[in-house]
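Q: I have two molecules that I believe assemble together. Could you output structure tokens for the complex as a whole instead of separate predictions?
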Amino acid sequence: MTRGRGRAGALAGDRLMQGFGLLVLTLALASLGALVADVLADGAGRVSWQFLTSYPSRLPERAGILPALVGSIYVITLTALIAVPLGVAAAVYLEEYGTRSRLARVVEINIANLAGVPSIIYGLLGLGLFVRLMAMGRSVLAGAATLALLVLPVVILSTREALRAVPKSLREGSYALGATKWQTIWHQVLPSALPGILTGLILALSRAIGETAPLITIGALTYVPFLPDGLWSPFTVLPIQIFNWVSRPQAGFLENAAAAILVMLVLLIAMNATAIVIRDRLQRHSA
Amino acid sequence: MMTTTPPSPPSLGALTTAARDRPSAVERPVQIDVEGLDFYYGTKQALADISVRIRANLVTAFIGPSGCGKSTFLRTLNRMNDIIPGARVRGQVRIAGRDIYAPGTDVVDLRRRVGMVFQKSNPFPKSVFENVAYGLRINALTGSKAELAARVEESLKAAALWDEVKDRLNESALSLSGGQQQRLCIARALAIQPEILLMDEPASALDPIATQRIEELIYQLKHTYTIVIVTHNMQQAARVSDDTAFFWLGKLVEFGATDQIFTAPREKLTEDYVTGRFG
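A: Yes, here they are, computed for all two components at once.
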């Protein structure tokens, strides 16, 4: 009897949790959906070839996002080029070479903390270190270096997770054939961990592309009527352009901001999709 | 009390066959000479005072209940335990006269000379060809592409796998069956031409037919290699090995010719184990 009631109670609890989960999910998706719908309603009509290929202007209907779009792609590519080798190398060191040292443990805890530091702090660091001390100025390079610092902890943490998930038997198989540690890491461990590493990179770069505060701090421009023409060129990025437009009083600029948000969403989705396709291809080849 | 119960009729047959082909004890030189070996995982002692002489071109079996240290001991012979944090070794392991735990020993070279096959087959997530070629590539053992291909073919033939995979060399090794994967791992180990082959329960995850193929293979390979095999299957030990070492609680209880261990053990503990009274 009691057992029957207990079972019915457990079932009811199960159903309750399921209902609750569904509710939470619906709420989250609904707010996201509302956001996208709002942006679509405001900006969909404004997205056009002219909008994508024009420079900013005093007149909202003639303004475009070309410098911001190119700037975003430029900065994010550079960020990846800086953060990926550094982050992966740091993770390999911490996971494969330094795991047992006290220093490595202290470093590990601090990396986890760094991942939670507000991005504006990185902006201040970038301003002091890259822009002033290293005299990079308000350049694409300084921006990318700052964003690279910002995402480095995420890259390191997720790469370590991926390395840790590589089965021990794979390493042993390699060592048993007379492979050195580095040969084992390079030929077996890293290829096996690559899909996991890529997942971390998607997350990290998605965060970087949406960052505004640290780039404003280091002095990225809000009005750029030219394309960045090198590492030392001044630049702007999409979030800054959006930020700039939403603070204008004219309705036309708000429309522009919504359209720019749409472009940024598409850019983000394209980036993630590329990474996912690459990851799946890698997994298929190794399976 | 019966002192010499053979495990089962089939293995009795195998015993006599093995005994017939067995070379006399004296003519084989000692290849691995272990003296007073202690092994610790951190503070926990896993092996105590192991001394044993493993002879060349014979099959030596390590038997004993789970956790008795037989796999740990096997892994001290190619310093595979070095990877484990906190592992410590005392004593001497001399292979071809040189102490492999002496300072300055080239562990990478040691592992090239002392190959290993694991309990669970662990092919690399690469093609069949690349699995066998890996050891040759990293050790730069072959010059030309043709030479590499020839060595891969030779190794796959030696592991009795060539006929089954010759048309699918570029397929993923993970698409092979369990028994084929294990033979691929053997081929991979043979490719770099070791002197000694360590096998850690190589057939424990395989079905009887695949197991039989591995055992036949071991029988052929001992002409070229010194083989040390860990097994929890006593019939298998009786079938494939020339010498047998019985481990219990981290100690080597008895070591001798396989038929002596199985038919006339000197220790009561050995007798109880081989007759299936515990374990």
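A: One point stands out. Chain A has two domains: 2-46, 51-286.
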